[in-house]
Request: fold
Amino acid sequence: MPESTSTGVTAIPDKTTGVSIALDNVVKTYPGQVTPAVDQFSMNVSPGELIMFVGPSGCGKTTTMKMINRIIEPTSGSIAIDGRDVLSLDPNELRRHIGYVIQQVGLFPHMTIAENIGVVPKLLGWSKKKISDRVDELLETVQLDAREFSGRYPKQLSGGQQQRVGVARALAADPPVMLMDEPFGATDPITREKLQAEFLHLQATIGKTIIFVTHDFDEAVLLGDRIAVLSERSQIEQFDTPAKILAAPANDYVSSFIGSGAALKRLVLIPATEAKLGAASSASGTPTIDAARNLRDALDLLIVTGAPLVNVVLGDGRAVGSLTVASISATLGVEVLGASASSASAL
Ligand SMILES: Nc1ncnc2c1ncn2[C@@H]1O[C@H](COP(=O)(O)OP(=O)(O)OP(=O)(O)O)[C@@H](O)[C@H]1O
Reply:
């Protein structure tokens, strides 16, 4: 049954996989300001796409994103989700159909983890049993043991665990759209990489339409189907796939945002098995990398271990071949032999 707004108008459809989002000439001028924070922003997002907004602090990323769930009201322009004008919907009803994850997590400190995840389902009138089943399912989805974590309070969790709960809470009512504002920004680099990998895996199965704001271009390359590189007033400097932006930045602004090593950054987009693999080594102590990982992971491993090659292995541990710096260079079409450990960590 589709949920209805207080005006009886169907809100966002009762779909669980992604729907389209269309922003048309959206403007936001904050009260008392002359210059708009977002100026004539237009973008069409296809169902199931993961769109990254990247740009410097203050360029208007968050303002643009928050207009989609009307935490911020646009000054002018139109926004449609699945063809429905969001400005004509009841804002509270709208927000129950859009998952929202923020850097500060925003878990309610006096509620248990289960209660935090169940907030929106409860508002939607789900039964206790349905909510509790859903909480267990979501905790498993974000790799937290339900028996261990359901009854805990947010302060009894690490930062990374809290972020996972934040993602679970946003997914609770299975919304077709998710808005994510620097969701992994406050975590240390190792936790962040883990959360990113888990999130990519999750999105492959749930197929939500996601707008994801980040400062970090490398995060955008790793996660995004398309990246919007934004400048002042949320102007779109380039909107394309990570591979195309890295291969052909539209202008100097985009180039400077990519920073050095555009070719090397492309490594994260290439699965380990896409390179020409050599014979697997049977030498003991040969480092291994899972076939699902990418060429950047393989290069990092080669540099960190100093080994001449890494074996690429399947889930059952069977080696399907090996990678060397030379084979990675050949796949990329760029010599990465000179890459030092420090330049690799800056990839
Ligand atoms: N409530 C507000 N009142 C007035 N100006 C605001 C308000 N919120 C944001 N701004 C201004 O609007 C511009 C865009 O801010 P916004 O938060 O959207 O940028 P951002 O790209 O998300 O930045 P960051 O990456 O630092 O979060 C900035 O110049 C900011 O100072």
Summary: The pocket of adenosine-5'-triphosphate is lined by residues 30, 33, 37, 55, 57-63, 215 (CB under 6 Å). Confidence is low (pLDDT under 50) at residues 1-10, 339-347. Residues 2 and 183 are 29 Å apart (CA to CA). The first strand starts at residue 21 and ends at 28.
